[in-house]
């Protein structure tokens, strides 16, 4: 009987090895797995928001030039002082055709300040573009690692299936031989566990499909079939303290503060009067006796009279000053959120690193020993089959949990990289 059982185990081991080799070959010969960097580059290159920011930046540049120019002059043509009794243009000496030109001038340095404000607004766009790039890289990377975990779960479940098939053969062999510790319930329990494993594989595939779908939303032009597994490095993670004020999100907030300050200067300029210059030339016909009449020239200046300054211009200045405070508080809040997020991600990496070490160095070794000992005890007719099942399931769960820990470390490192992003494009300008 022991010889038969050994033959069963040896045959099963051969099939296990063949199955594992097939899994490895399937992984290597399946549709080429895309690389994360390749996917990120494709997502950034195909992002319509980034393409739109290039046009927006040009638009603000053009608008700043236009804002520095004077308003277009106005031309006015009047037929004045026409007698209504005869409508004869030569009847009255005051009848004339007047052609006038007027030019308005905004208050103080309004044109210059408006142009500078639009230049500042245009400088926000490169920071927004850098922020968009960093956000895309973060979101694509996080979804990539979610898909990677789903792929890894499938591999682990598929690799474990031959071992559960082995359990069925073992229980059937012992049950057939009449072992006291083996019964039909053990065969049924092993078959049920294999069914649950198959269901687990189906669920993992469903998760993989969903995660890949979420990933391809960022790169619809790419077909991503598989995501290769990549364990985290055993080397100590180190980083320099970043200047979060140079993060694109901080740079956007800082530029918004500068724009708010420019609005204050603009509001102050409104305290100065705007004015306009107008001139006209009146052409007269000859009188009724045929004598030529002299033409008229008129020149005038009009200006604003700020009689309601206290409730208009002054309040506009105060309102603009309050918006500066709002923008500054927003900037400080962004910095606070960035600092908190970076600190949380660093703490997360440290905690996950400790968990990974515990699983790799201790728990996995213990579970491998427990699985082997439980199976040996059962085949020696001194152990219980439930202990064997629990050992195998616990080992599979631990392997999947280790993969989850590795994935969470990847994701935490992605967040750290996001927080350490600097607005190099905006600084260069």
Folded structure, characterized:
The protein is 67% helix and 8% strand. Helix 2 runs antiparallel to helix 4 (110-177) and helix 4 (110-177) packs antiparallel against helix 8 (385-419). It has one domain: Outer membrane efflux proteins (OEP) (Up-down Bundle), CATH 1.20.1600. It is rod-shaped and about 145 Å long. The chain is built from 9 helices and 4 strands. It has helices at residues 2-29, 36-45, 48-67, 110-177, 184-216, 248-269, 313-379, 385-419, 424-428; strands at residues 74-80, 96-105, 275-283, 296-303. The model is unreliable at 1-33 (pLDDT under 50). It is α+β, with helices and mostly antiparallel strands. Strands 1-2-3-4 form a 4-stranded antiparallel beta sheet, with no helix packed on it.
Round the Cα radius of gyration to an integer and report it. 40 Å
User: Class in CATH?
Assistant: Mainly Alpha
Unreliable stretches (pLDDT < 50, length at least 5) are 1-33
The number of helical segments is 9
CATH architecture: Up-down Bundle
CATH fold description: Outer membrane efflux proteins (OEP)
- Percent of sequence in beta strands: 5-15%
Layout of secondary structure:
Elements: H1 2-29, H2 36-45, H3 48-67, E1 74-80, E2 96-105, H4 110-177, H5 184-216, H6 248-269, E3 275-283, E4 296-303, H7 313-379, H8 385-419, H9 424-428
Antiparallel strand pairs: 1-2, 2-3, 3-4
Helix pairs in contact: 1-4, 2-4, 3-4, 4-5, 4-6, 4-8, 6-7, 7-8
């Amino acid at each position: 009987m022991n010889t038969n059982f050994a033959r069963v185990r040896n045959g099963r081991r051969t099939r296990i090895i063949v199955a594992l080799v097939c899994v490895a070959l399937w992984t290597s010969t399946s549709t080429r797995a895309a690389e994360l960097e390749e996917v990120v580059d494709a997502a950034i290159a195909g992002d319509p928001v980034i393409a739109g920011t290039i046009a927006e930046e040009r638009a603000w540049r053009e608008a700043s030039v236009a804002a520095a120019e004077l308003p277009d002059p106005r031309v006015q043509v009047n037929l004045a002082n026409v007698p209504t009794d005869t409508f004869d243009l030569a009847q009255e000496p005051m009848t004339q055709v007047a052609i006038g030109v007027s030019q308005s001038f905004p208050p103080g340095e309004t044109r210059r300040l408006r142009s500078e404000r639009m230049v500042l607004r245009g400088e926000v766009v490169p920071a927004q573009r850098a922020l968009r790039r960093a956000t895309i890289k973060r979101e694509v990377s996080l979804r990539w690692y979610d898909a990677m975990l789903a792929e890894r779960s499938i591999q682990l479940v598929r690799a474990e299936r031959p071992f559960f098939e082995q359990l069925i053969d073992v229980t059937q062999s012992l049950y057939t031989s009449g072992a006291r510790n083996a019964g039909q319930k053990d065969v049924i329990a092993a078959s049920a566990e294999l069914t649950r494993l198959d269901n687990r594989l189906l669920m993992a595939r469903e998760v993989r499909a969903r995660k890949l779908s979420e990933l391809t939303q960022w790169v619809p032009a790419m077909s991503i079939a598989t995501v290769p597994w990549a364990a985290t490095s055993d080397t100590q993670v180190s980083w320099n303290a970043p200047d979060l004020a140079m993060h694109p999100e901080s740079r956007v907030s800082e530029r918004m503060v500068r724009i708010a300050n420019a609005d204050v200067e603009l509001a102050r300029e409104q305290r100065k009067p705007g004015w306009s210059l107008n001139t006209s030339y009146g052409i007269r016909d000859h009188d009724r006796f045929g004598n030529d009449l002299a033409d008229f020239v008129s020149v005038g200046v009009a200006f604003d009279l700020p009689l309601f300054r206290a409730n208009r211009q002054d309040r506009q200045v105060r309102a603009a000053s309050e918006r500066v405070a709002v923008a500054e508080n927003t900037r400080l809040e962004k910095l606070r959120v960035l600092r908190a997020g970076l600190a949380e991600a660093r703490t997360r990496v440290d905690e996950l690193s400790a968990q990974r070490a515990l699983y790799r160095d201790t728990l996995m070794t213990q579970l491998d020993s427990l699985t082997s000992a439980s199976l040996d005890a059962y085949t020696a007719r001194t152990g219980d089959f439930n202990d064997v099942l629990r050992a195998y399931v616990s080992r599979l769960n631990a392997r999947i949990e280790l993969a989850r820990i590795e994935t969470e470390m990847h994701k935490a490192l992605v967040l750290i990289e996001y927080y350490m992003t600097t607005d190099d494009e905006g600084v260069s300008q």
